[in-house]
Amino acid sequence: MNEEHGGRADAVHLAEHGAGPVGEWPFVQPRAVQWTEQSEPAPPSWPHRAPQAQPAQQPPQYGNYGDYGDYVDYTGGYRAEPAAPLWEPAGAPAVPDAGYAPPAPGRRQSAAVEETVPIAVLPPDADRPGRQPAPGPAAHTGARPPAYPAEPGELTEVGSDLFAAMVPDTVVDGGTVGAAAVRAVSVRGDSHRYAKECRQDSVLLVRVGGLAVLAVADGVGSARYSHRGSAGACRLLVSCLISQADRLTAALLAGDRNAFASCAGVVMGRVAARLQEEADKQDHAPADYATTLRALLVPTDPQHPVRGFLAVGDGGLFRLRAGHWTSLERSADEGAVFDTGTDALPVNFGAPVAELITDGLPGDLLVMCTDGLSNPLVKEPDVAEFLARQWGAGQVPGLTDFLWQTQIRARSYDDDRSVVCLWEGAR
Questions:
Q1: pTM for this prediction
Q2: CB of 202 within 8 A of CB of 233?
Q3: Which of 113, 128, 289, 327 is at 20 to 30 A from 91, Cα to Cα?
C-alpha cells in the first residue's frame, strides 16, 4: 500500500498487437484398405492366422530411447484399425478418392494396405482456431512511460521468510455466480518487482453455502509481514463466514441493512482475533500483520439482486453503468481533518463498513479493488476511460484479457493491484 500521485495523463499508448503467421492445417488421407466378408464377428485369431489372409508376422522391432533403455515394438504385423478423426475442419476441400470406405455390418478390416495419399494443405479459415495476436505489453497512460519495467525481474530469493518467497507474482481467477460473471486478479506492483519484494495484496473467490464471497486485501506497506496478514485475512474471512452464512443470506434477501451490519461486525471481529492469534503463534507482533480487507457477498440465487459489501480500510467500490463510473462508498465528512492513515486488521480498526447494494440493474459492472487501482481510477481520467471501454462493452473478457486490462499503467502508480469485477447478468 503506497501513497501514489501523478499528473493528468494526455493519452493512452497501447502497444501494437503482434500478429504471427497463420498456421497451416495439414490433412492426411487415411490409407486405403481392403475389406473381406465375414458372416459374424470372430474373436482375434492372431496366433492362428491363415497365411493367405494375413501377411507374415514381423519379428519384434527393437529400438532405444536413450536414458530410458531399449523398447520392443509388439505391434508389427498386426492389422491397423481405421483412425477416427478427432476433429474435422469445416469446409474442408475434397481429397482424392483412394478406395477407402467405411466397414459395412458383418465385415472386418484386412491387413492389406495401399500407399499413403499425399498431404492436402487446407487454406486459412476464419472459423477454424489458429494463432491469435497477443495483446502485447501492458498499456500505459501519459506521454512518459512509468519508471519501472512492466514485467517481473529476478526471482525472489528464499531467505528467512519462506512464505514471502512462495507468494506468486500474479493470481488470476474467475467464475460465475448465478447469472453474473466474475473476474479477479492480484498483481505485484512495479516497485515491489524492482525491489524483489513479494506481493502484499491478496484476492479470493469462493462459495459458502448460498453466498459467493469475493474478497481483496491490501497488506500495509510499512508492516513487516503484511503479506501474511492479507492472505490470512482472506482465508479467515471465509472460515468465520461459515457460521454466519445463513444469517447474512437472510439479511441480504430481506434487504435488512441493520441485521447485515450486525453480522458483518461479528465476522470482522472474529477475523481480527484469529489473525492476531496467528501472529502470536509465529512470535510476530500483531501490528506487523496489518492489512485492509473488503468483500462482496453475492447470493447465488439469480432472483435476488441485493449485494452486501463489508470493509475495513481503504480501497474502492465502483459501479460502471452506461459508460459512467460511480463510487458506491460514502464520502468522508467535508469538515473532517485529512488523514493519510487507514484502518487495518487486526488491531487498528473501528466499526467495519457494512452496506447493501439494492439498486443494481442487469448490465451493471461492480468493481471492488485495493488502492493500487482505486487511486489511478479516480485520479487519472485516461485510466478510467480505458477501463470503461474494455469492461463496459457488454462482453465479459477472458482471464488473459482481463489480466492485461487491469495492468493499465500510469506513472507514479506502482503499488500492488487487486481487483474483483462482477458483471451483472439478466434476471
A1: 0.69
A2: yes
A3: 113
